[in-house]
Specification:
By secondary structure, the protein is an alpha+beta fold. The chain has a single domain, classed as Sandwich (Jelly Rolls), CATH 2.60.120. It contains one helix and nine strands. Strands 2, 3, 5, 6 and 8 form a five-stranded antiparallel β-sheet that branches. It has a four-stranded antiparallel β-sheet with strand order 1-9-4-7, with no helix packed on it. The longest helix is centred in the first third of the chain and has 20 residues. It is globular.
Length: about 130
């Protein structure tokens, strides 16, 4: 009986760890060229799966950039907008009411924070 309990606990721990490991993240690379009008960039749409937590993680410091998640076929924000992100590090999104369902596809959208900027590129990872 004790052996069964140990095996059960081990299997449950394996499922808990695999859920974290299987959470998807995708890479992005945006190059922004002046002028500000028309500078919005988006990724390819990715499906939100169980275990995914929405985030963006720029890999290096750069010119301040705003990020938001948008539905597959729209530009309407599905999350809060993360504003003036200019340092590396993970930032989390919060879905707005009516968005964030599992199985739905979202794109990462980014644009320069300020209208006057020099050409720059930002890379990193994100998850819907």
């Amino acid at each position: 009986m004790r052996k069964r309990i140990i095996i059960l606990i081990a299997v449950l721990c394996l499922f808990a760890v695999s859920g974290t490991v299987l959470a998807a993240s995708y890479s992005y690379s945006f190059t922004f060229n002046p002028p500000f009008v028309g500078s919005l960039r988006t990724t390819n749409p990715q499906k939100r799966n169980v275990g995914d937590s929405p985030f963006v993680w720029p890999s290096h410091s750069t010119t301040p950039t705003n990020y938001v998640l948008v539905p597959e076929h729209e530009i309407t924000p599905a999350t809060n907008t993360l504003k003036e992100i200019y340092t590396a590090g993970k930032r989390s999104f919060t879905y707005l009411p009516g968005y964030g369902g599992y199985g739905q596809k979202y794109r990462l959208a980014g644009y320069p924070t300020y209208t006057d900027f020099e050409t720059y590129t930002i890379k990193g990872t994100w998850s819907p």
